[in-house]
């Protein structure tokens, strides 16, 4: 792996992500292995220059999504298996690592079963007691689910306390033949967990019970929001004031704005990610807000391979498109904005590259001449303070 110069989360507090006085923090990158990658990579990221310097690597299989504990001492990674060609009987895993922010070193602690196929998303409960795992499950049997794993005092993961399996399907053959849970996201107040089901076109709402009595989660009174048929809801983020949520629709390549009404998410606006008349393949992937909440960014794969930039109306939460930026590679699955808001890094999974773009906090636009990182199949990015 080489470095080449070229043309919101409840699990992480601001203290955990903010760079030191010298502007340097850790950048942890999750990948798909089997090609040029060996696992999880740690870089030193300089927020003054946008440069990233390799520090360490922890070998593990397909750590395509990561979560970092609030105290920065632990990193959790999915082991996304079996994939499209693996046997449906094979279950994926979740691995726990101790992390030393000062040295940038990861140490493997333990691994537990995700109790499902193709785990693709992790979230920590607001109190840090549980890790929630979304199992996408390419195979209809066992189908999409999410699992609750307890976090022990030493950072290791215990065996699952609760498994929730979804039922349902959508109209898109080959992609919505069964349930596919793609993300599990907590409400800003920590009372609700939202599970986005790409296969069933639904956003499920679960009540979170911190003491775990009667189950860690239980169905909320308003149990789900029905999304547009065939849209394929994938990831969700909340506005900084918590009044709105934004969902990226993978199959429709759009972003939907929803108003939060005490746990009930009500759709208000849907914006496409492609220009009118676009004829190529699409595959919307990730969405993130700028630190100040004024801009929303959304990635689109397929033949688009770009990031759409929206301005967020601070009064009503509505979106208006202000720009578009090529990812300069193939399959921009995930991206992240650094805590200062001055840089955006996007990974091109099928090009083995990532690019660090300078970001204008006033306009939201991304500048020319980004810095390039050569990384095998990069997917997820986490900024962590030293």
TrEMBL record:
<keyword id="KW-0313">Glucose metabolism</keyword>
<dbReference type="GO" id="GO:0006006">
    <property type="term" value="P:glucose metabolic process"/>
</dbReference>
<comment type="similarity">
    <text>Belongs to the cycloisomerase 2 family.</text>
</comment>
<dbReference type="InterPro" id="IPR019405">
    <property type="entry name" value="Lactonase_7-beta_prop"/>
</dbReference>
<dbReference type="InterPro" id="IPR050282">
    <property type="entry name" value="Cycloisomerase_2"/>
</dbReference>
<keyword id="KW-0119">Carbohydrate metabolism</keyword>
<dbReference type="InterPro" id="IPR011048">
    <property type="entry name" value="Haem_d1_sf"/>
</dbReference>
<dbReference type="GO" id="GO:0005829">
    <property type="term" value="C:cytosol"/>
</dbReference>
<dbReference type="InterPro" id="IPR015943">
    <property type="entry name" value="WD40/YVTN_repeat-like_dom_sf"/>
</dbReference>
<dbReference type="GO" id="GO:0017057">
    <property type="term" value="F:6-phosphogluconolactonase activity"/>
</dbReference>
<protein>
    <submittedName>
        <fullName>Lactonase family protein</fullName>
    </submittedName>
</protein>
<dbReference type="Pfam" id="PF10282">
    <property type="entry name" value="Lactonase"/>
</dbReference>
């Amino acid at each position: 792996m080489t470095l080449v110069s070229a043309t919101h989360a409840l699990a992480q507090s601001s203290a955990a992500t903010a760079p030191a006085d010298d502007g340097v923090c850790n950048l942890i990158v999750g990948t798909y292995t089997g090609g040029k990658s060996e696992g999880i990579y740690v870089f030193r990221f300089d927020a003054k220059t946008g440069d990233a310097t390799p520090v360490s690597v922890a070998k593990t299989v397909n750590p395509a999504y990561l979560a970092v504990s609030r105290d920065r001492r632990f990193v959790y990674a999915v082991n996304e298996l079996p994939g499209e060609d693996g046997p449906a009987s094979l279950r994926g895993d979740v691995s726990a690592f101790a992390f030393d922010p000062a040295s940038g070193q990861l140490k493997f602690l333990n691994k537990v079963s995700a109790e499902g196929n193709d785990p693709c998303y992790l979230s920590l409960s607001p109190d840090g007691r549980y890790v929630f795992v979304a199992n996408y499950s390419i195979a209809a049997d066992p189908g999409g689910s999410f699992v609750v794993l307890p976090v022990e005092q030493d950072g290791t993961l215990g065996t699952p306390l609760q498994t929730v399996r979804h039922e349902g399907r959508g109209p898109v053959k080959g992609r919505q033949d069964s349930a596919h849970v793609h993300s599990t996201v907590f409400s800003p107040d920590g009372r609700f967990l939202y599970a986005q089901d790409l296969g069933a076109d639904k956003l499920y709402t679960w009540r979170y019970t911190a003491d775990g009595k009667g189950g860690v989660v239980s169905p909320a009174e308003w149990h789900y929001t029905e999304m547009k048929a065939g849209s394929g809801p994938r990831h969700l983020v909340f506005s900084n004031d918590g009044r709105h949520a934004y969902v990226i629709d993978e199959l429709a390549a759009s972003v939907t704005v929803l108003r939060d009404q005490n746990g009930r998410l009500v759709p208000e606006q849907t914006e496409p990610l492609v220009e009118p008349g676009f004829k190529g393949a699409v595959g919307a992937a990730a969405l993130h807000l700028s630190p100040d909440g004024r801009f929303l960014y959304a990635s689109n794969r397929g033949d688009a391979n770009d990031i759409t930039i929206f301005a967020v109306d601070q009064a009503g939460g509505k979106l208006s498109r202000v720009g578009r930026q090529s990812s300069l590679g193939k399959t921009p699955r995930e991206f992240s904005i650094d805590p200062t808001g001055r840089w955006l890094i996007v990974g091109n999974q099928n090009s083995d590259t990532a690019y660090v773009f300078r970001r204008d906090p006033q306009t939201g636009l991304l500048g020319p001449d980004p810095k390039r990182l050569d990384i095998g199949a990069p997917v997820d990015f986490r900024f962590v303070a030293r």
